[in-house]
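S.,

Sequence below, as promised.
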Amino acid sequence: MAKKDYYQILGVKKDAKADEIKKSYRRLARKFHPDVNPNDKASEDKFKEVQEAYDILSDEKKRKVFDKFGYYNDNLDPDSPFSSGAGAGAGPAGFDFSGFQWDTASTGAPGGGSSFRDIFSDLFGGSGGAGARTAPEPPRALPKRGRDIEIPLAMSFEEAFTGLTTNITVNRSEQCSRCQGAGDTGGPVVQCTTCKGTGQVMRSGGRLQFSQECPDCEGTGRRRTPCSLCNGKGVTPKTEQVKLKIPAGVDTGSRVRVPKKGHGGRLGAEPGDLFIVTNVGKHPFFTRKGDNIYVTVPISVSEAALGAKIEVPTVEGKAQLKIPPGTESGQKFRLRERGFPSLRNPSLRGDQFIEVKITLPRVISEETKELLRQFEKLNSENPRKAMGLE
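The prediction came back faster than expected:
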């Protein structure tokens, strides 16, 4: 595998300070960010390469390994006396002191540079004293695509069949017109009001609570004075009437996308999308399975025995169905292409299945009873004979 020069990738010298590395990384990350260069594979690859270089050089131990061996591996230990590859600055037993600088202010040793006082100041946030360092500049915002919005929509069975055009009110956001989504206008550095300077915010996940890096200051606890219009959010609230066109054939749980009607993006990035999640109500006698429709229709004894042409309901109105003589209760018939339109291919439709159910008159007169007795004599076949029953 070809070795990579992470210093060259970030455009910094090998003796670059951490602040220089971070500044260069942010400049390149902003330049090659996927949100700034949509559908650009070369920029995406360069962005990943910049991220990889910063991951190594921003970590003191990883950078030390890279400086010593010319590449990084988790198994390499730059401080081990048994590690190979020590340079000209290696001391006894392979120890490499070439990168170490003495604190002339406190020890009088030659070399100058960073002191232990500086290191403790960085670690514990101390200030003042000869070795105190100025805190790094807070990060500037990067272009960021807006968040998606999801809204439920109740529909009737018929509206799902035919499709629906309607307007809904959406509470969304748009890029701040004053700061253009940066969240600040370049003013003085102040404590982050979101995390109260801690760099961490609390989040809830079910019953658990956990902390994560503050999204507004990126964990630094400091930021430039927030924009007064958006209060540092980079976006401002907006209530908008959005026209929806729900296609025919949706079902409960279908997601209809309305492009760029989600929350606003930052620094010129695209807004998110609006997703409408449909909830289709039940019908009094139709049921749906996929694109097919099912319905049960009652028929009389004479219609079942003699056959008939009857009217049956469909979502689009009435249709004619031929009942052949000798039809049994529970028998199913199909009306082709009377079901729902297909969402994937609107030119295709499902079918409608009709199950007939033989029903008896609620009131039977004596004359009707006598006719049934005569019918029984003429048709003495035992319908339970196949089951071995009398």
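The helical segments are 6-10, 18-32, 41-57, 60-69, 116-124, 157-162, 301-306, 366-378.

Coffee later?
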